[in-house]
Amino acid sequence: MKQINSNTLLELLQNDVRELLLQCTLLQNTDPALLVKQPAEGRWSVAQVLEHLNIYARHYILAIEQKLHLNQTGANDVFTPGWLGNYFTQLMKPLDNNSLKSKMKSPSNAVPSAQPDAQAMLQEFINHQHHLLNLLQIARTANLDYIRVATTLSKLITLKLGDTFRFFIAHEQRHFLQIENTLKALQPFVAHLQVK
């Protein structure tokens, strides 16, 4: 796997999180009726996507924080992605043309409720992103290769801390592409709202 400077990686990831926060600002200014409307039967609303992301954030933010709290490793200059972490990251991350490599079915424990509170889900997501920015900053004093974090799949399946950050943020980027596509699909509904 190609090595990357640890601080460069963390800075790139912080920039990715800041970009997600900018997109959240747009969502805060979106008609609340749009955030809870499903674009088609069986497809998630924006609020449901946000709840799905929050389910993952509740696990990974806490798990990362606990590992960093116990950190006794000291920083490493260069991070080498692990094969599993790199695989998961590449599977999740949107391609350069804003498309996805493949569709994926969410595990049953990460499926959102039918009608989540859009404003509450958005605010929770924003709070998680600010927390994540802090954890990325703290991680500058940690060994991104040595510290391992359990995945949501199993406590026995762990990823390097650097890969955990990469995968987790790529998962969020993937679903923000879904949010963008959902809002595009709802454009006829927007026109209907404006006529009323």
From TrEMBL:
Domain of life: Bacteria
Transmembrane segments: none
Limits of the DinB-like domain: 26-179
Name this protein carries in UniProt: DinB family protein
Record InterPro entries: DinB-like, DinB/YfiT-like
Organism: Lacibacter cauensis
Short name of one Pfam family: DinB_2
Coiled-coil residues: none
Highest classification ranks of the organism: Bacteria, Pseudomonadati, Bacteroidota, Chitinophagia, Chitinophagales
